[in-house]
Design brief:
about 375 residues, alpha/beta, Rossmann fold, disordered N terminus, oxidoreductase activity, GFO_IDH_MocA-like_dom, Gfo/Idh/MocA-like_OxRdtase_N, Oxidoreductase, Gfo/Idh/MocA family, oxidoreductase
Length: about 375
């Protein structure tokens, strides 16, 4: 990984890597996110995806050939029966993830699971998954991969070092047109559990848990299937007085219908001692566009602008797997644990409740 030199201190944008990168990983799912993100990042990081299975054998064969995976199984059950597999990477729709994890934990040779986000279609199903893994002694890590976007991590370092002082106001503003997946039609939801969950989790990563949230949705004029959460607006209130605002605009104007486009994701964190602002390069995918951070403090009186070459999609996807492998080596719970992710899922469910009832929703201290 190549970084552009700057006067800024080390912002900790790279994940901590395990000592042993050769742990056999079994991959379940062979769609876009596995093919274009997980496996690309794993190969670059030196990890060992050893086997793959999907509901369609021919798709698994194609992905295996592209990424040099030697073992292809007809179905996930056959993969899970392979006693050489120690870690399972699951990238399937959220409404089938519980069923797969219920089968995974029956195999004592499997020590760890990296589960795609959202971990389930609702909080109660997520709780079942967390309980299943806990009871089986399996380490569960949830793939909230935006925590490994390089500008998100840089901002977290700034906050942890106290450079920005007490956080006052934070915003994330997304103007993008995501590619919705066909399985979302049967869910009747899209933005909050698929895209906004990244931004809500990023706020939790930066600042911890809010005490209440207010959310407002309107449908996306471009999306034809019935849905409740197209464009999403969110306000998070913290006990400290901090306020966070998220705008997830998945309409972004009639850019697909002939108008000029103005797409992008920007964020800003203002504190009592300084502030940071950044961009997320994802809306320009597949063109590689690194995220950025600029920061300033009262002490330096100018903008620092460190830059790097890495991008969220796909480079950041090495982070959650690295975190799981490190947790298994050290015998610790990963930061992206299932237990932690229950708080993100509780926040997401509270957003749906808020939008439905048109009122702010208090968050429980322990979901």
């Amino acid at each position: 990984m190549t970084h552009v030199e700057s006067d800024a201190a080390d912002l900790g944008i790279d994940p901590v890597m395990p000592q042993n990168r050769d742990v056999p990983i079994g991959c379940i799912g062979a769609g876009f996110i596995m093919d274009d993100c997980h496996l690309v990042a794993y190969r670059a990081a030196g990890f060992h995806p050893a086997a793959i299975a999907s509901r369609r054998r021919e798709q698994a064969d194609k992905v295996a050939e592209r990424h040099g995976i030697t073992q292809v199984f007809d179905n996930p059950s056959e993969l899970l029966a392979d006693t050489s597999i120690e870690v399972v990477d699951i990238a399937v729709p959220p409404d089938v993830q519980l069923e797969i994890i219920r089968e995974v934990v029956r195999h004592p040779h499997i020590r760890g699971i990296l589960a795609q986000k959202p971990i389930a279609g609702c909080f109660s199903e997520a709780q079942k998954i967390v309980d299943l893994c806990h009871d089986a002694g399996v380490t569960l890590c949830v793939n909230q991969n935006m925590r490994y976007d390089h500008s998100v991590r840089a901002c977290k370092t700034m906050l942890d070092q106290g450079k920005l002082g007490e956080p006052v106001l934070a915003t994330i503003d997304m103007r993008a047109i995501p590619h919705w997946m066909p399985w979302q039609q049967r869910q009747r939801w899209m933005t909050c559990r698929i895209m906004s969950i990244h931004h809500l989790d990023a706020m939790r990563y930066w600042f911890g848990d809010p005490v209440r949230v207010f959310a407002s949705f309107r449908t996306d004029p471009r999306t034809t299937f019935p849905h409740v959460d197209g464009i999403g607006l969110y306000i998070l209130e913290y006990a400290s007085g901090l306020r966070c605002q998220i705008c997830d605009d998945v309409w972004a104007g009639p850019a697909r219908e002939g108008a000029a486009e103005d797409l992008g994701i920007t964020w800003r964190v203002e504190g009592t001692e300084g502030m940071a602002r950044g961009t997320i390069g994802w809306p320009k995918y597949p063109r590689r566009c690194p995220s950025t951070i600029d920061w300033t403090t009262k002490d330096i009186g100018r903008w620092e602008q460190p830059r790097w070459d890495e991008v969220w999609f796909p480079d950041a996807f090495a982070g959650p797997m690295a975190e799981l492998l490190v947790a298994l080596e050290a015998g610790i719970e990963p930061n992206l644990s299932g237990r932690d992710n229950l708080r993100t899922m509780a926040l997401v469910d509270a957003c749906y409740e808020s939008a439905k009832t048109h009122r702010a929703i208090e968050l429980l201290t322990s979901p």
